[in-house]
Amino acid sequence: MELPESDIEFLDEKEYQYRLVPNEKGVYLIISNFPFPEVYAPREADLLINIIAGYPNTPVDMFYTNPTIKLVNSGFPNRAAVFQNFDDIVWQQWSRHYDWRPGIDNLRTFISSINNELIKGQ
Are strands 44-52 and 26-35 parallel, antiparallel or unpaired? Predict the structure, then answer.
């Protein structure tokens, strides 16, 4: 599975270090050393987005981190205490749901929504 050119351009523009790992339903996009606001520890983690065949018309939902991210003062962030195994690695699942708009949304809007959630610090 290939990402649309606009997504590749976005990832390159942001200078993300990333890799694509094929899976049975699509591809895992893994962004290395994704930055987190100071209310989280650690301040960087690998970020996984599970992109399913049919994307960008098929929505992406939730995101995952490795290593485990916690709030500096209060344990796990809201809806982020479940773990999934992808590609023989245990990932922390962040249960954040996004109202996907086919034909409009892409990695730029999805990663923007991730950053907006992280800024809330919960």
Answer: antiparallel
